[in-house]
Amino acid sequence: MPSWEMQVSGDCEAMQAVRGLQVDTVGRLWVLDDGRTSTECPPKLWIFDLNKNDSVVLVYAFPRDFYYYKSERGKLHDLVLDRTKTDWLAYIASPNARNLVVFSFKRNASWVVKSSVVFWRQISGVAISPGTRARLYFFQFNSKELFSVSVRDLRARKEDPAVRLEFSGTSISRMVMDAEGVLYFDLGVRKSLFKWNTSSPFKEERLLKDVLLVRDIPFTFTLDEQGNFWITKQYENKKPRYKLLKADVGAKSYLYDAITDCSSSNETCDSSEMEKDDSPTFSWNFEISPEGKTIFIILLICLNVAIAVSLGTVIYCLLQKLKKLQDSFKEAMARPKEFKGLLAVNST
Fold it and tell me: CATH says 4-273 is which class?
């Protein structure tokens, strides 16, 4: 996808090692390419327009210092999308580089969330909750804790944002969020899939059992618009090598939430507001001082008086013309012979 020419191994102009996929609500496919194969290519973010024959919308190469840590080549592993009122953001896990990377579609730029605490190290998976109090959930490689951070802090590029421990006890390999804030995740050692409503205190609920999902073998989760939960599995020494599993859970992807906080107010964001280009937007924002308000009111009063005077003058002139016409008509009626004569001449 979209062509074999874009799948050539070792060609840094093509995709090399896809680690994350997301489709937004306006029909764009976001592809996270780690770039590491036999050739060292920079990691990139590819965006395709599925509504226009899978045409390339954007290809963004991440800066070197985003994926290197102490001269060691890191990798970009997973991503989620954050829809705001005027932009689309991608939050990207970078386990080896010990960074959380943020990409802005509107700015065509990325930055690293700076933190002095240990929580950013080896982030392996991310998920984002919907609503006005959205949080980014993440876990670390080979860790038994799940953490979260405020999305509002991430949007504001706040340094050292507060990190909250959600639960501890069992390691997670993959997770995804639905539009109601329910987190779906696997607990590989228990060979099961679970879910948790993040608006309530942590309480796991088994969704599927006897599902063997091993962390070292690639697999993915996703939710579609019809409420189906999809899982891809890969086997090393078994045929078929790949399986696609489906479960009806009655939930849509987190991107289809009804309420998304765009800044700080309880506004509803519609996907129709999300523009596909980077067109500039303009707005007027000004304040009037108390003295200015007084002058403004006086000007409005003067304007109203001027309008009233003008209308009065026009009405007076019209009344004068009407009076002259009435006087002329009365004068003509007072001379009936001349009036009749005039009619006789006109009739001939």
Answer: mainly beta
